[in-house]
Amino acid sequence: MIKVGLIGCGFMGTMHANCYKSIEGVKLAAVADLRKEKAEALADGAEIFEDGMELIEKADVDVIDICLPTYLHAEYAVSAMKKVGYVFVEKPVALTCREADMMLEAAKETGCNVQVGQVIRFWDEYVELRKIIESGVYGRVVNANFRRISPVPTWGWNNWLRDVSLSGGAAQDLHIHDTDYVLSLFGEPDTFHSVKNTIGEANSYICTVMKYKDFAVSVEGTWDLPESHPFEATFRVVFEKATVENAGGKFMCYTPEGATEIRLEKKELSGGYKGGNIDDLGGYYNELLYFTDAAKSGSKPQMATLADAAKSLEFVLREIEKA
Is the pLDDT of residue 278 over 80? Predict the structure, then answer.
């Protein structure tokens, strides 16, 4: 039985807790949050700590999952690496490249295995898209678009998401999902051009066009929309012989012969979280299943690694700087 210690019981921590409860051979053994009522709501028999550092020091756990605001990741992750052999850190991996480097050094020194919550790599539609691209079944990629738009994030603890000095804004916190996925598919582009908003909250909108040898990819992200606007995460990839699109709740393939819906088998999961921009646990379940399977077998996670996340963070920060 893998015993999990969860630090942070807010929006993301709630989803992680519900996922762990659905994974066989995994027990949520300890939870920590400064807001005791949040920890109590998730505990379900788990030991409760009022501070994450206390959990790291005292809890009897095999792995530690850090679902704290980005600006706290490095401090808690480095301490957790000294305690257990497996640490999960939510994305973005850190607020700065210096912090990411500090985490990489700690992982090297301790031998700790670290996975980062770049969940799109595990999301069913994006997993299937990767398979389609790698198979070459529809020929080469001609162009692609990835889009992630959200209402204003009012659900963060003490409104930390809307403080660019703590989160990096949408350009860092939200946009990094698609940037990381594109980099994992195609590598770093030959050139790129970014633009961001100049009116409203800093870094609440960004759009980047990445130019590769013979195709281009555009990536757009914002959380500058009214609360009444639905969250949307979409993509469209144009191939030589088809167009594959995930939008409007449908995953479609369009060819000269006609339109076909791509149907995926998904695990039915209970729980979730209302009040944020996601209520589907699918991708979170997949990534945490992968993480805990690695912990059970004593193997090193090969997907969404700390090194991967550090590279994606460095690229996103260059996007913001050049925008």
Answer: no
